[in-house]
Amino acid sequence: MFYTCTPGCTDPKHQHSGPLSAAARAAPAKAATSARPVARTRSGKAKVVDLHCHYLNPEVNAKTAKLNAAQYDPTVIFADELTRETNVKQMKTRAPKLSGVTERLKDMDRMGVDIQAVCPAPYHFFYFTEPDYGAELAREVNEGIAKVVADTPDRFVGLGSVPLQDAQLAVRELDYAVKNLGLRGVEICTNVNGKNLTDPSLGLEKFFARCEELGVVIFMHPLGYTQADRLTHHYFNNVIGNPLDSTVAVSHLIFDGVMARHPKLKVVVAHGGGFIAHYWARMDHAWRARPDCRTVIKRKPSSYLEKFYFDTITFDPEMLKRLIDRYGADHVVLGTDYPYDMGEDDPLGLVAQVKRLPKADRDLIVGGNAARLLKIKF
């Protein structure tokens, strides 16, 4: 196989002159913590903000029952009978937490969370519907979240939904959600009906441009993997499929140039950034070694990956430490995935287990970064 390298290729196997060390090539982004103020409680503790949690609007759920949304849901399509039965049982026990506020507030107090950035349950993306109806449903989802926030403004802020199946309608709903309802950004899926977010047929460039212009957060959350024939057993379409779909989505945003064209985008990736956040060097190597990996972007892929934000849902303090060390404490935000069973029930305990984490960095991770991204004023 023949390939060409960029003039700055630093792969030692290619025997170019003056190669950089692996450490130099992979130098992690460091957080500049000293200049970032962190809101505190009266007792002096840093305010805790959960940027990954969900709310299911019961009225919208009842209204859309006739749609049989499960037929479009990869987590149902690519699942065996035991997984489907387990999901049904989970919904019965967790519905009050997912659709209500009373138990949610009790759980927040137990976990030490001061504020939740409430975003839609992934089942309420509704990209499979006709665009105008999808826009109507997104409006109802957003108004429901805005009401939750308005009823308890000291504990909640909101992230909304947009109909990504139509870029123009998505931009319109984004503007309404932010300007009229006061939501702090939007949650989007990692694909649109199986299409990459950068698929030209979707025309989502205008959506990303508007998010950048408004300075709002895009929280990217998967709903399984869309070609998951090999992931039907053992709940693999969540265990493996969710981080895999995030990995594909982030990779396209990088390699197709969205992050290069919109350098001020604030994109938060669920579940610790998927696989790509922990295996980024392979794409850097490919970019140096092959011309088909640098048809759009002019800098190494990891330089764009460093612009993303990642939640703490890694389930392991060593993995979380590596995420913090690689991207900086100022690019990691607290997440729980509340109230699902694949979530983190003790988010502060996980952060506390990270060895040699300075207090200033901890304060950023548990709330300071989210407060800045979501423009929360205490």
TrEMBL record:
Keyword entries, A-Z: Lyase
Domain of life: Bacteria
InterPro entries: ACMSD, Amidohydro-rel, Metal_Hydrolase
Residues in Amidohydrolase-related domain copies: 49-375
Gene3D superfamilies named in the record: Metal-dependent hydrolases
Keyword Kinase: no
A Pfam family assignment: Amidohydro_2
Lyase in keyword set: yes
Protein name listed in UniProt: Amidohydrolase family protein
Lineage summary: Bacteria, Pseudomonadati, Pseudomonadota, Betaproteobacteria, Burkholderiales
